[in-house]
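Subject: Sanity check before I submit

Could someone independently write out the structure tokens for this chain? I want to compare against mine line by line before I put it in a report. The sequence has 409 residues.
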Amino acid sequence: FYVWAETADLSPLTASLLGLALIAGPTGKCAQFPLHLWLDEAMEGPNPASLLRNSVVVGGGAYVLIKLQPILNLSPIALDALVVIGTITAIGASLVAIAQIDIKRALSHSTSAYLGLVFIAVGMQWSGFALLLLFIHAIAKALMFMSVGGIILTTNSQDLTEMGGLWSRMPATTTSFVVGSAGLIGLLPLGGFWALRQGVDIFWILNPGIVVVLLLVNFLNAINFTRVFRLVFLGEPQPKTRRSPEVPWPMAVPMVTLTIVTLLTPVIMQRLSLLPDWGYLNLTAAVLLVLSGFFGVVFGLAIELDRTWSRPMKMSLRFVQDLLAYDFYIDRLYNITVVFAVSQLSKLNAWIDRYLVDGLVNLVGLATIFSGEGLKYGVSGKSQSYVLTILAGISILGILVLWFVEFQF
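---
Independent answer below. Compare away.
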């Protein structure tokens, strides 16, 4: 379709409809606004499934967008839609993640946020940046979910308010979580910095507004990861974490291996010629990126946490906290709009099926029964009655034929 996209002669309307239709699938697959609720609920599944889903599966939808880039370029409306969807999801999901008390949900919303950045990159026609984001995110997020799996295994809980003090009890798991978190936010020298730096460099002059979005998302995710780290690994041990051992070696070996891979990501990028020439490095952009991650970590360490609440972070404005904790009440909006409309249509369809369709079928059945009941009285079992009936029928038929012939002539 690359050749087709170069030679296609489509009207603006056709190109826009085609582009928007192709965007719809990846929007749901990548858990982007407003089709993002499924990823949060999917965290009820086992951790291996969550690991694959957050690191690889949802990225498949973004990869489809990258491959469809030539077709999407035919429609400016489709490209603008990608940027809008990605921006809303990246910022909104980063905010929602900060208010979650389920450790897997907190990380799943960050997945939506990073894929939102991929949507922005594709919408701005920078597929190389989008592909680099997918590469870095898949490695680091897989490592984070490996460590989360060990935490859930040893504590039998996903509630952040029930955890604490695991730093000294699970050193390998702690190290994996820290390295995975650092590998996603823009902190030197790991891969997240180099991936986000490329985006900041690209849009520094091209579109400064996108740079603000990148820095803000990096700042918010640094807050989220630091908050989760404090609640899980720091502080006093809680009842469910007092006797938590380190994970067994079959789980520790792949986790440590991926930790090493995450640390070596810059080396891999260097081998693949993905790192910039130091002579062309935008020092101002790099400093801003590092500061956004650094201040996010500092803010995450400074915010007041309260384990006695059903919320993981204490805020003066409770309604803001609830707004973020309940995902801007989007699920309730779905209930009063889409779910309500589908429910009413289903009830109408059930009524039509029961009283019109089934009623017509039942009417035919009743007509058959009543006609049979009426005809049974004409069955006497006597041959003379049947002969009389035949003669009467022939006579009536003959009269009708004669009448028809006389009427014609």
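---
OP: Matches mine. For the report I'm noting this point. Residues 2-325 form one domain.
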